[in-house]
Amino acid sequence: MKRKLAVLLGYGVVIGLAYPAGILYATTMTFYADGVIQAGDIYDIVEVYDTPPARTTVDMTGGQVDSMSTFDTSVVNIGGSVGFLQTNDSSTVNLSGSGFIDGGISLNNSSTLNFRGGAWEADSGYLVAFDSSTLNVYDGIVGLVSGANVVIADNSTANIYGGYAQAPYVAFGSSTMNIYDGRVGTLGAGESSVVNIYGGEIGGNWGFGVYQSATANIYGSDFQYDPQWFWDDYFGRWISRFTGTGPDGLPIDIRDMPDPFTSPNINLIPEPATASLVGLGSLGLLRRRKVNG
Fold it and tell me: Whose C-alpha in 37, 39, 185, 283 is 20 to 30 A from the C-alpha of 66?
């Protein structure tokens, strides 16, 4: 099948080429229309743009890209190997299957990265969300080595629905993190950030820190806090454990966190008991109106 694309190779520009299903080698590939990167394709740089009003979609079913940048409202589905990834504008990148990123990741300008499988590994590298961008983790591994770090900043949002995150997460700069399920390593909330917890395992690598200007909201029921759950010989101190049941019945398990019953910036919000009370109150109000009527 013919694929419309534009190739920038060296100093020459080739537009609208039709490539057979073969192996491609190039220094730079620039997509302005839908295309495919497949097994055997090797590129140093890949850039993806829209050609308005059409949106560009690139399916990476295999192959290798050293540096990838996405722009406009383009969509890239990564099933191969990418080194550095930078998303811009309102573009979307989906990582799934055997997709693998082994360098830094920078999300910018309201762009979105979806983990639907695959893995990100970066030794001493960062996944950083800026400029109201969004990180969604449904499945996969975020930070395969302990040197990787995830930073959510500048009004950005992270939604954790599943998967495993060995890398530490840090939220600041008026950012929001919503955790529904999955496993999150060390988590720090600071600088006016908000962390909402509805389920999942947090602090598996020891630590959930909530700093003075941050807010943590934990939704659920059956809350219990054990300040002396485990003695850590390495740090020479007790490790705490907080447990509960989220609104959807999923377990909440948080290790090494401040006492939520005494910390002013940690809020325990009963769910679904709150909804039940609201429902009973509304029913009572209706009955009162009928009697008065």
Answer: 185
Written as six digits, the tokens of 141 are 């591994």
Domain parsing of the chain, residue ranges: 1-140, 168-293
Sequence-distant (6+) residues with CB within 8 A of 163 are: 115, 137, 138, 139, 140, 141, 142, 182, 183
Average confidence (pLDDT) over 185-209:
91
Kindly indicate the confidence band of residue 285, based on its pLDDT and cuts at 50, 70 and 90. very low
pLDDT per position as a tens digit, 140-183: 999 866 678 999 999 999 999 999 987 889 999 999 999 999 99
Q: Is the pTM of this model over 0.90?
A: no
Name the nearest CA neighbour of 49 among 78, 69, 72, 28: 72
Q: How many CB atoms lie within 10 A of CB 21?
A: 9
